[in-house]
Amino acid sequence: MMRGLIGFAAFCFVVAVLLVPLGVAAAFAVGLAGALATHLAGKGVPRRTAGARR
User: Fold this and answer.
1) What number is the average pLDDT over the span 23-50?
2) 48: helix, coil or strand?
3) At what angle do helices 2-22 and 24-43 cross, to 10 degrees?
């Protein structure tokens, strides 16, 4: 669930930053690419389970 939330936050951040300079369509396209890249980068991070302790 955290991966999805981080991807959504990345999407919102990128759209908020690029909306005025690039316009709606380009900002959403770059935001989507950023969210997908964030999600794929998170795939490489191992998940901790509820029962796992250090």
Assistant:
1) 86
2) coil
3) 150
Q: Which two tokens stand for residue 38?
A: 């964030």
pLDDT digits over 34-44, tens only? 999 998 887 77
Q: DSSP of 3-43, one letter per residue?
A: HHHHHHHHHHHHHHHHHHHH-HHHHHHHHHHHHHHHHHHHH
Of the candidates 8, 11, 2, the one whose C-alpha atom is nearest the C-alpha of residue 32 is 11
Its pTM stands at 0.74
Residue 51 to residue 12: CA distance in whole angstroms: 32
CA distances from 53 to 20, 42, 47 (A): 46, 21, 12
- Residue 33 CA to residue 38 CA, distance in Å, equals 9
